[in-house]
Amino acid sequence: MDKKPRVVNRTLSEQMAKILEDEIYHGVWQVGQKIPSESELIKMYGVSRNTLRETIHYLALTGVLEVRPGDGTYVRSRTVFDALLIKRLEHEDITMIMEIRELIEPKVMSLAAELRTEDELEHLLKLEHELEASFAQQSAEYIDKDIALHLYLAEICHNPFLSEIYHAVMKVYTPFLKQAYFSFLDNGVSSDHKQQCELIREQKADEVRKLSEEILMNEKKALRESGVL
Fold first, then answer.
1. Is 71 within 8 Å of 113 (Cβ atoms)?
2. What would the pLDDT profile of 11-65 be if each residue is shown by its tens digit?
3. Which of 97, 86, 122, 87 is CA-nearest to residue 200?
4. Contacts of 7 (CB under 8 A, 6+ apart)
5. Residue 158 phi, psi (nearest 5)
6. Helix (H, G, I), strand (E, B) or coil at 180
7. Distance between CA 134 and CA 143 in Å, rounded?
């Protein structure tokens, strides 16, 4: 006998929350971006005002959205899982966050080297070029571009669950990196990223994993020198 699909009993607001969460996850609205107004969303998805308000309330409660009275509703996290993980990590010490990153990041980089496509490589090298330019100019945008590069690497490792965990870790970790900005300049971390991207281009997974471990050691040194760690 053929196995019948399992029937899932969900309210309309729960179904709508899943739809909006999927839209955010797939980039329809980016983190920090304002989503359409209540009336626009009702027209877009054909739901009632009450259903939409219940949906927004739930996503705001879980941390995916942020409602700003008199302004609008903004994307705060990509998924409910991401938002809940960030809330959990926000209560941890920087030392523990760094330990989590040391466990995850080398694997992310090795998978990116193994699985990246040519189109993904092209975009990665573009991000690395922008990072290198901001480093040379000692631009305050350096850390933001560094994070953008790392988050993209997490995307091209083609493991959505691992990518979400890494996104959450980097979200909490970023403020500490910004505090250590000048120590990063002194330690020349950006040149390591250039080598890292070159190894990914050559699909040398083991070598990029080892280099990632070295880069993290340099970051720990910069964090210590700046008094963050």
1. no
2. 899 999 999 999 998 889 998 999 999 999 999 999 999 999 999 999 999 999 9
3. 122
4. none
5. 60, 40
6. coil
7. 9
